[in-house]
Amino acid sequence: MHFGKKLVTTALTAVLAVTLAGCGGGNKPAAKKGDVKWPKKPITFVVPWSAGGDTDFFTRTLSKYLSKELGQTINVVNTVGGGGSVASNKVKDSKPDGSTFLCFDTALALNHSCGIANFGYDAFSPVAMMGKNTGEYVVVRSDFPANTLAELIKYTQEHPNEVKLAANTGATSYYVAVKLQELGAKFNVVNGGSSSVRVASLLGKHIDVSTHTMGVIKQYLPKTGNGSLKILACLAPTRSEAFPDIPTAKEQGVDLSYDMTYNILAPKGTDPAIVAKLSKAVGKVINENPDYAKDIMAGYSAKPFYQDTEETIKTLKAEDDLYMKYSDVFKKGIK
Amino acid sequence: MLAEGLASVLMNPICIVWVFIGTLVGIIFGCIPGLTATMAIAMFLPVTYNMAATQGISVLMALYIGGISGGLISAILLNIPGTPASIATCLDGHPLAAKGQAGKALGVGIVFSFLGTMISLLALVLISPPLASIAIKFGPFEYFSITIFSLTLIITLSSQNLVKGIMTGILGLVFATVGLAPVDSVQRFTFGNPNLNNGFDILTVLVGVFAISEIILAAETAHAKKKDEGTVLTDFTIHGFGFSLVEFKTQIVNMLRSSFIGILLGILPGIGSGTSNMLSYSVAKSQSKHPEKFGTGIIDGIVASETANNATIGGTIIPLLTLGIPGDSTSALLLGALIMKGVQPGPLIFEQNGQVVYAIYAAMALASVCMLGIMFFGLRGFVRILKIPGYLLLPLVFVLCTVGAYGINNQLFDCYSLLFFGFVGYLLEKGKYPMTPLILGFVLGNIMELNLRRSLSYSMGDFSVFFTRPMSCTFLVLAAVSIIVNLYVVYRGRKKEAQEAK
Amino acid sequence: MAKYRDVIGGCLFFIFAAAYYNMALGIRQFSAGSGMVDSQFMPKVYAILLMVLSAIQVLQGVHHVKKREAEADEGSGLTVKDQIISFITSFLLLIIYVALLDSVGFVIMSALFIICMTILLSTKEQRSKKNLLKLILISVAFSVIVFMIFVDGFGLTLPEGILS
Asked: What is the pTM of this model?
């Protein structure tokens, strides 16, 4: 029993040594005086969508350069489900110690107004806005008998309930569907799935109309791809700089426009010093890093866009107010 | 492009080493119940950030292939599937090992895993465009019908008692309803617990039902003071892969059919290797000249399961590359990695990133060969794991399962889920209910309901569309036929028993 | 006992199915454009199917009890009471392990668990002082090695408990 005891003690000491050694890890850049001691361990960016979408792309591209800026690994995790609410719930309830952040988009406000989440941006400590999309586009197959959004609406009035428009509860596509039906269109509004799934459904003739960001559909358009799909209108307030010959819905006389913004949110109660430090680092990457600009231009034809914490809160509030107006309509569902 | 892509993998010694490491790590993660290929890929992602696109993707593919292939080890040796893709391997793999032929079982599993991957790679290289266009033609109606067909076929073939089989299957479907509902995301059966928003994790269900219940039952055996029979002396001296060329020849049709099933289910995102192995097993059983031998330890079952689950890998790559739709959580990570490297999936992927695509092909081939080699040399070692007495092995395995469960989301909740399903599995075993339908019901529950509701929204509530669309109708009819045939066979069997009793 | 297995199983399933149906009624209805099939539909279908099938099973079970004698219990040959005791001990051990994992830490709890569980699973003849020593060594070494491989090697997170 002596021998055994010794061995156990040695083993336990070894364990102690190992865990103590393991506690000190992480490489930090030289800390400046007065700097808040963060990040000490790897950071997690939670994306509420599955890999491959626009929010995921912006987050991953940003974190690639941001981790060098902060000197700490950033793990991008896709927590899918509930139209984004599984992820937002998770981050909302996680420890506000600067280790977890939510990288979401305008859908946060939509989740709130649809009732999928019973909270909005104010349940978090917003950090920064990390991007703005060139806009979402109304996409159909290239042989569809309409060439503008206005024509599409007219077509649905002539063939009510025949044209399938894909909309997902709690997403911007839902807002689009509600507005279009409000404007007199007679779509059969159906559930479509994620962006790439909707594209496949379009190609397979299972749905007829869907809204997408540029990155996903670029390879299917006439000039930049194989021409199997075409765009009817851009849903942003103004024409995108990258695609100046695509008219907006507003120009076509259809009163529908919104911006798609990407934000970083921290759990409520996170140390404001951490929030400020992250926001500053994000701003630095977005505004000053040429490789970052190149990446997002290549992927989504987007230009770097950044808003600091104060401005972000204002923008988020505006978004929330806009979509909460439709809350009752959303909750009743689309007929 | 072709040459560039292939060369970047095959002629680059660093890349070859990384692929080897990836395969090895993948196999380790795949064979330990509780650890998954998904976890391995998630952990390796940061490592690939600084690698070139072709190299990074190759490592991840190696992890994927190793992970899927590794599951057969624990399935055969411990009767606990390392991943959902090897559930059906337990059914014949473990009995064969119990008969003292563990080496043969492992050898068969390894070789046919290799062949399954290679066949699907061939399909990927040669007929990827037609397969992709087939994938597009499958809409929600077809998805629904296929899942119903898979459910009925597997249930009718997996149990002695049809009623019990269907009941466990429905129980699996019931567990799948916990979480946020598809389409409208309302909370169902979550009791206000946000941890349940995403439902139970397949890992906790699988490991809980198979492994934890084993432990509890083993405790009972020990309590009864029955000596642990131990495992029959096993074939430590194995020649080659443990089976003969003659036996190989008998399995060729099985192999081809199973590959076909694996590839087909692979190109349908959402239905992956978890289903293909069980479906392939069931089909093999129904087409076999000696179906009653399935489950007693014949290599046909292992071949069907392992060929299919590896063939699904190649199938999954097709919609991943051509449509950007990942087939399961593992390939979702691959997609993320591709996008990070600037590779956008879609019809132009060959033109814009052809070298990455060919690198993937090369990596698949290389990883398969590595897998074959690693497992070949490890074969005798794996068999020696059986020498560890069960009363020590099971607790060790449970600790590893806990690591895996905890690692899902860094919370204890998943470990508790593990125990919960262990309890469920224990009760089912006690009541002599079959467990495989439970897993299948759980895996397919959400896809089935999502596609049912989507289909009905497309058809404005019209149920007849399921039958007016030809492919959908075919699968539903096949499902009905399988139930009727099973009922008939049982009826015939009862009549025969009654006659013999006279 | 064994001959009533099907009957008991069927009854338990029936009760479960009924409770499940009841809970399903509480699911929020949100008709987002998909018609009559809402989020309550499938749970209700499952519940009804289960109730029907478990009823059939109970009938089958009763039929068997009447027709044949009790089949030999291929189980462990334990009385019901012993089965329950065995189940409770092993399950309790599992629960304690998981419950204390966070607070005490992975390494210590795993080592303790392996030792206790192995003792529980082994028979009297297999337990000896020598084996106990070997067991303690293996348990501690295993726990430490697993921790080191996954936390330091792979970057996973495991609860450190009182050792942190």
From this structure: 0.86
